[in-house]
Design goal:
By secondary structure, this protein is mainly α. The protein is about 75% helix and about 0% strand. It is built from 15 helices and no strands.
């Protein structure tokens, strides 16, 4: 069943790739919605189940499709694979904590600061040219973040402050995850996902046991359904669909379609949970989205994929 589902997501054309990317981003935007219904378990526990389920499902896909994992290729990128798996685990942990301590929209917007961090860090690590446009985008996005935190008007509530802080930490570790993946060149995307999810699960297993423990049986029917959706759809199916579409789209197309994720999250936050934003926070969100999008767009069409 999983093999058929994954094989059906192979893009036959750029048009279908765009539809697939659009659908993937829309589904990713619902992650905060489903995580709200798993509040009976901790963020660490949810992260563990997500990583463990993805490891088992992708491992099953390798078995069913009779494809083998290459230990020789893994050895070449072992250090960066381990570090990226750790970064992924911590990223998920802080992301779910952000959803639980502030509104879905504020958590998502704070988390969306990651592309800006990658833009600034990569020139120093990979000797890429840092343009005046990129510096301006970083400054303006930082200003937008300041407006979201409301430092110009008043101190936000303790819950919002903590949630935004967790969202920013998630952005830092997601940026680290993206950058570490740039060093991994010997392992394919599906095999890479298997290793990274497996490492994340191994990291979260003892952490969860040593902190608040496991409370899986405390979930009700809606909680179980939400957990299953997060593990199967958000983590495995949409993850695969995203990377399949990524290979056939330009960087500009990916940048534009990527904005569906936070827009869906903001829509859900407002219409399903009655979570509102102040005028300054809305302005800050527009500044971050606008300048991040402008930063991603190239002056001319390019076939370069996003990291």
């Amino acid at each position: 069943m999983l093999t058929l589902a994954i094989n059906s997501l192979r893009c036959a054309s750029p048009a279908s790739a765009r539809c697939q990317m659009l659908f993937s981003m829309a589904i990713f935007g619902t992650l905060g919605f489903f995580s709200r219904y798993t509040s009976a378990i901790t963020s660490a526990e949810l992260s563990f189940y997500r990583a463990a389920a993805a490891t088992v499902l992708i491992g099953g896909w390798f078995l069913c499709s009779r494809q083998s994992l290459s230990w020789r290729h893994l050895q070449k990128d072992m250090v960066f694979m381990l570090l990226s798996g750790v970064a992924l685990a911590i990223n998920w942990l802080f992301m779910f904590e952000a959803f639980r301590h502030t509104s879905i929209s504020l958590a998502t917007i704070s988390y969306y600061f990651a592309p800006v961090l990658v833009t600034i860090i990569c020139p120093f690590l990979f000797h890429e040219r840092l343009t005046a446009k990129q510096v301006l985008c970083f400054i303006m996005s930082t200003l937008g973040l300041g407006l979201i935190v409301n430092i110009t008007d008043y101190m936000p509530g303790a819950g919002d402050s903590l949630g935004i802080f967790y969202g920013l930490l998630a952005a830092v570790f997601y940026a680290a995850f993206i950058i570490l993946n740039k060093y991994i060149r010997s392992v394919g995307s599906m095999e890479r996902s298997f290793y990274q999810f497996g490492i994340a699960a191994l990291i979260m297993l003892p952490y969860t046991a040593l902190t608040d423990g496991y409370h899986l049986l405390d979930l009700d029917l809606i909680g179980w359904s939400s957990l299953a959706f997060i593990c199967l759809i958000h983590t495995v199916i949409m993850h695969y669909a995203y990377f399949q579409a990524l290979g056939q789209l330009t960087g500009q197309e990916v940048a534009i379609l990527g904005y569906i994720d936070p827009l869906v999250a903001v829509f859900i936050s407002y219409f399903f949970f009655n979570e509102t934003m102040t005028g300054n926070q809305i302005l800050g969100a527009v500044i971050i989205f606008g300048f991040t999008l402008w930063n991603e767009l190239q002056p001319s069409p390019a076939s370069k994929d996003l990291p």
